[in-house]
Amino acid sequence: CLFLALRNRKLNILDLSSPNNHNLEFFSNNYTCKLYFASFDKFIESAIGSEVCGVESLFAYGGEFFKSDNVVDLILLWDMLSYVGSKLAHAWFEYLTDFCHANTVMYAVFPINNKMPISPGKFQILTRNRLRCQHSSDECTAQRFSVDQLSKIIPGFVVRRTFDLINGMQEYVFKFKDSK
Q1: H-helix or E-strand containing 123?
Q2: β-strand 100-111 against 72-78: which pairing, if any?
Q3: N or C terminus: which one in the chain shows less Cβ crowding within 10 Å?
Q4: How much of the chain, in percent, has pLDDT values that exceed 70?
Q5: For residue 33, which of 76, 79, 97, 80 has the smallest C-alpha distance?
Q6: Angle at 176 between CA 51 and CA 143, to 5 degrees
Q7: How far is CA 78 from each of CA 69, 71, 131, 132, 141, rounded to the nearest angstrom?
């Protein structure tokens, strides 16, 4: 579903997870692109159970990408939105929209079931049609969102496609609607 939204052109890709060789190899072999990793999953793992989760400390994990004038074509959010409260998520996206343009695409997955792994998954793109997720076997109650809730939490993005996956997750492809 995600790759239907991408065109074969030079892309700036922001993967909000930690670097992994599978994703780096996939994008390097299939697209002309610059790939940035923000390591937000590490931030979330370190903040679980903590009340100290400010946007400023989050973007310190993003490295050089957030210290530049980069514009992003694709944001890989993965499952991270399910691990932060809606208030912090809204603040993330208010900040991230500064790096978006009218055709920015974002990919995310959300749990369909009432349970989800206790920490964000490690997503690896194997092929255009195959994605692997490694995660903890420990579970917690899933934070689930309706499309209306998502539109409030993620300002400027609209749902373009959804697709149910066989692993109890639902993938979403969002598109940024420039309102700047």
Answers
A1: strand 122-127
A2: parallel
A3: C
A4: 82
A5: 76
A6: 35
A7: 24, 19, 11, 12, 18
Asked whether the beta carbons of 111 and 135 are under 8 A apart, the reply is no
State the chain's mean pLDDT as an integer.
83
Q: Kindly give the pairing relationship between strand 130-134 and strand 122-127.
A: antiparallel
Q: What pLDDT is recorded for position 157?
A: 93
Q: What is the mean pLDDT of residues 64-69?
A: 71
Please tell me whether residue 58 adopts helix, strand or coil conformation: helix
- Predicted model pTM: 0.88
User: How does residue 2 score in pLDDT terms, banded at 50, 70 and 90?
Assistant: low
Q: What is the pLDDT of residue 90?
A: 84
Instruction: Report d(CA 119, CA 130) in Å as an integer.
Output: 22
Give CA separation, 51 vs 58, 79, 81, 142, 150, in Å: 13, 20, 17, 19, 23
Rg of the chain in Å (alpha carbons): 15
Look at the block and give the residue holding tokens 């940035």: 36
